[in-house]
Amino acid sequence: MPAFSTPTAIAAALDLGIGNVTIVASDRTDTVVDVRPADPNNPNDVKAAEATRVSFDDGTLRIVGHKPKWYSSAKKSESVLIRIELPTGSTVRATSPFGDFDLGGGFGDVRLDTSFGEIRVEQAASLTVKTAMGPVDVGHVAGRAEVHTSSGDLRVHRVGGEAVLKNTNGTSHLGRVDGDARIVNANGDIFVDHAGSGVSAKTANGRIRLSHVENGEVEALTAVGTVDVGVLRGVPAHLDVQTTIGRVYNELEAGSAPAPGERSVRLKLRSTTSDITIRYSEAG
């Protein structure tokens, strides 16, 4: 189990084959790495663990894993389990074709790239995640967050900056976002709980629910699915709403145009087949 003296935050760079990775950031002055075979009774897993290289130099932890030539058989999985414990605020760059990433604690910039696997990140200063298949769950990102998946549900609870979510097949759920939010789905619902700035939400097949908007340009466009938008009471709203065969339910009261410098929302809402509802939300 390699251990290194790291009195301050470090950079972790991982280039892996098959395997699951757990990284825990906490207030500590060292970094510890544990690499094990996923199945200690599988000789291929044992060889993969033995072939994994761990080094630390000039503030950077590097882990390079064995790259197998096949992925189809459990007996030939060549899979490892990696656990890293490092200081709070450390950055992470990691790639793996097959494997889960579980990051607990507070990190700096995090960038994860995997083809198949589940991803969980508790806290990060900024975040970029790309996966071909698998769910993504993110707690709090202080700055910008960008998350892409081809198939899987996305859940990002809190973003202090800009948020970009792209999903080919699955639900995209954004909790509270302070900066602009851009969410693009091909097949799946889009939910935003609280948007402090502009929102662009587009899906070909799915519902769109923006529970709370309060400022900026807001568009919600879907071909098949309902649209539901809540506007903060007292904020002037300009409506541009169209549905082909559905109905529009507008619960907002008529009001005057916003004064210069006053916050307002401009709503562009579209649904081809379903209803559109505009209502009031409450501050929160």
Q: How would you describe the overall organization of this protein?
A:
There is one protein chain. With 284 residues, the chain is mainly beta. It has a domain of 150 residues. It has one helix and 25 strands. It has a 25-stranded mixed beta sheet that branches. The longest helix has 9 residues.
Major sheet: 25 strands, mixed
Distance between the termini: 47 Å
Structural class given helices, strands, pairing?
A: mainly beta
Low-confidence stretches: none
H/E series: EEEEHEEEEEEEEEEEEEEEEEEEEE
Give Rg in angstroms. Answer: 22 Å
Approximate strand percentage: over 45%
The tally of helices reads 1
Counting DSSP E segments of at least 2 residues, the number of strands comes to: 25
Outline: elongated
The percentage helix is under 10%
Mean pLDDT: 94
Question: Helices and strands in order, then pairings?
Answer:
Elements: E1 3-5, E2 11-15, E3 18-26, E4 30-37, H1 43-51, E5 53-57, E6 60-64, E7 79-87, E8 91-98, E9 101-116, E10 119-133, E11 136-141, E12 145-149, E13 154-159, E14 163-169, E15 172-177, E16 181-187, E17 190-195, E18 199-205, E19 208-213, E20 216-224, E21 227-232, E22 237-243, E23 248-250, E24 265-271, E25 276-281
Parallel strand pairs: 2-6, 2-8, 3-7, 3-9, 8-9, 9-10, 10-11, 10-12, 11-13, 12-14, 13-15, 14-16, 15-17, 16-18, 17-19, 18-20, 19-21, 20-24, 21-25, 22-24, 23-25
Antiparallel strand pairs: 1-4, 4-7, 5-6
Keywords:
single chain; mainly beta; about 5% helix; 25-stranded mixed sheet; about 280 residues
